[in-house]
Each structure stands twice: as C-alpha cells, then as structure tokens.
Design goal:
The protein has no helices and 33 strands. By secondary structure, it is mainly β. The protein has a domain of 76 residues. The protein has a 33-stranded antiparallel beta sheet, with no helix packed on it. Strand 28 and strand 29 form a beta hairpin. The N and C termini lie far apart (144 Å).
C-alpha cells in the first residue's frame, strides 16, 4: 500500500462549491485515504469524513459556515446510501440516497420541529410509490401513492384523525369518483371531482342524510339537481352557481311551484299552488308580476295584471262561487282605482265609472238590478254630488 501517514497539505484547487485550500488527514502515497478534513480558502471546515483514492468514500459530513448540512455515506465523491440533510441545524431529511438524490425509503421533517412531514419512498428526489404525510401534531394526514412527486391515490384525514377523503388524486388534487367526510365523521359528499372541486354528478349529505343529488361545476350546484329537506323532496330542477335558475319544481308545506327561477326566486312563467289558491302566470323576483290568473278552490277569482303580488292594472274579478264577473276595470294595490265596471250577481251593471281606493270617485253611473239608471254624475268617495 505504500507509506500512510497523517499530515496537512495546503493547495488551492477548483471545487464544485468552493476553492479547497487545505486538507488534513491520512495520506497514502500522497493520496487521501482514510479519515480527512477539507477546508475552504477562508479556513472553514467544509467536509469531514472518509476518503478512498482521493475521493469521499464512506461516512462523511458536509458543512457550510461550520454548520452541518449533510451527514451520510459517499461513493466516489457522490452521496449514496443512508444520509441526513440539514437546514440551519434542523433535520430536513433522513433516508436513502442515490447519486446525490433522495432515492428509496426516507423521511422528511418540518423545519425546526423534528416532526415528521413525510415518510415513504423517493425516486430521484421526488416522492414515488407509497408514502404518508403528517400534520405538525404528528397525526396522519395522507396515506397514499405518489407518482413523480404528485399524489395519485390515497386516504386523507382531518387533523383530529377522522377520515376526510378517500379516492383518487390528479396533480395533488381530488379527482374522479371519491368520498368526503366532515371532521365529525359524518358523510358530506359522494361523487365526482376534477381539479380538486366537485364536478359532475354527486350527492351531498348532512348528518348522513341526503340533502342534494345532481350536477356540480367547480363546487357549485350547476345543471339539474334535487334538494331534499328532512328526507322529503324540496326542489327538483336547474341550478346555476348554487342558486335555482331555469325551470324547476318547488315543494313546501301547503305550497308548490312549477315554473322558472332566477337567483333562487320565481321568475318567468310559473304555476303556484298555496293553501286553496292557484296562480298561473308571470313572476318577477319571486312575486306575481305581469299577466296571470288567480283561482280559489279551482274557481277563477281574478284574471289580469299583477305588480309585486298585488292586482294592478287592468283585470277582471270574479265571484268564485257563481263564476260571474264582479268587477272589470283597473286596480292599484289590490283596490279598484281608475275606470271600471261593478256588476250585480245577475251580471247586470251596478256601477260604471271612476274609482279611488275602492270607492266611487269622479264621474260614474249607478243602476239597479233591473238595468234602470239611478244616478249619473260626479261622486266623491262613494258620495253623490249632484243629487
């Protein structure tokens, strides 16, 4: 083997990270062979460990500013085998290496906490194969499989240890047919994901009871779906951004609506059933607006214009028991206002003229049940002025 002895050697040579100025250690035939220390040109220790034929081989430590940044095994100047990676004296990684890269089974740590962040397999510095992620409280976060550093399948847990998600991942995001649970263990969602959001058909639950089934887009209800309330169908129809939009059917106690919606409100053509009433016609912003017909006990009560749920504009009011016309004319806020005709039950005219607040006001004509004119002239709030 030649002569081997301990010595210090001073020379400057190029190095990947710095210029090496001084070597101190075992030399055989003027070649580093055994335990040696390397220093940079500032006299700071940059490596301490075993050499073979002038190359790092075996256990060694890399330092920067006299702080340890790596401790592990080398083969021919390259990190290979078990090793530990440090940042600011805090352990970052310990496990297997190959050609200076994390490769094989290893463990990543949260900085400055010595708490495990990830434990599993690596391939060329990237998570590959089975592995586990952990919260800072050391509880398991994800138990899954990685490909090229991206999660592709596994189980995700809440920080309290309750199962949160089971299914597929794509680019580290929820994907495909999967299930989500709340942190109390109850089922929240069973359906499809894309880009980490609910997309496609799915079912939402509250306390393990179905509350919605239908289509989603980017976590919002979009397209056709059904809402349930206390296991009873509450709404079926179309949604846009979590709100009822388009055609649909709404079911409540003593109320049913079939028609169109906008921003969760009745809007457009629709049919409304409530108590003994039935309305078919136009809606706007949740209220009767426009032309419509109002029935009571299946008998027509009113046919005409509405404004904000009140009779307003021209319309015809009927006696729901006889189907005879009671009044034909104009309304404001459910009251006779403007020109109109009032009828007896025998369809003969009782009064025709002008109204204010349901009272004769202005010019009008009064008749008896035999069609005889009783009075014509001016009125003031139901009082005749020209007796």
């Amino acid at each position: 083997m030649g002569n081997c002895f301990y010595k210090k050697k001073y020379s400057v040579e190029n190095h990947i990270n710095s210029n090496i100025k001084q070597f101190e250690g075992i030399y055989c035939n003027n070649i580093k062979h055994g335990y040696c220390i390397e220093y940079n040109i500032n006299g700071e220790k940059i490596f301490e460990g075993q050499f073979l034929n002038n190359k790092k081989n075996g256990l060694g430590v890399i330092l920067n500013n006299n702080i340890k940044i790596f401790e592990g095994y080398f083969i021919d100047d390259v990190i290979n085998g078990f090793g530990k990676d440090y940042i600011n004296n805090s352990l970052l990684y310990e496990g297997q290496w190959n050609n200076n890269m994390k490769h094989g089974f290893g463990t990543l740590y949260y900085l400055e906490s010595n708490t495990i962040y990830y434990k599993g397999n690596f391939y060329n510095n990237k998570k590959q194969g089975s592995g586990k992620l952990y919260y800072k409280n050391s509880n398991l976060k994800i138990d899954g499989f990685w490909d090229n550093d991206l999660l592709i399948n596994g189980l995700e847990y809440w920080e309290n240890g309750i199962l949160k998600y089971e299914g597929l991942f794509k680019n580290d995001k929820y994907f495909g047919q999967s299930i989500i649970y709340l942190d109390n263990g109850t089922l929240h969602y069973d359906g499809f994901f894309e880009n980490g959001f609910k997309n496609g058909f799915g079912k939402e639950y509250e306390n393990n009871i179905l509350t919605y089934e239908g289509n989603f887009k980017d976590n919002f209800k979009n397209g056709f779906g059904k809402i349930y309330n206390h296991k009873q169908l509450y709404y079926e129809g179309n949604f846009k951004n979590n709100k009822k939009n388009g055609s649909g059917k709404l079911y409540k106690k003593n109320l049913k609506y079939i028609g169109f919606f906008k921003n969760d409100l009745f809007h457009g053509k629709g049919e409304l059933y409530y108590n003994n009433f039935y309305y078919i016609g136009d809606f706007r912003s949740g209220l009767k607006n426009g032309l419509g017909k109002l029935y009571i006990n299946n008998s027509l009560l009113y046919d005409g214009n509405f404004f904000n749920d009140s009779k307003q504009g021209y319309g015809i009011l009927y006696n729901s028991e006889t189907n005879h016309i009671l009044y034909k004319g104009h309304f404001i806020n459910d009251l006779r206002d403007g020109y109109g005709i009032l009828y007896f039950n025998n369809n003969f005219i009782c009064y025709k003229g002008y109204w204010t607040y349901n009272m004769s006001n202005g010019y009008g004509e009064e008749y008896n049940k035999n069609k005889q004119l009783i009075y014509k002239g001016e009125w003031k709030y139901n009082n005749k002025l020209n007796k």
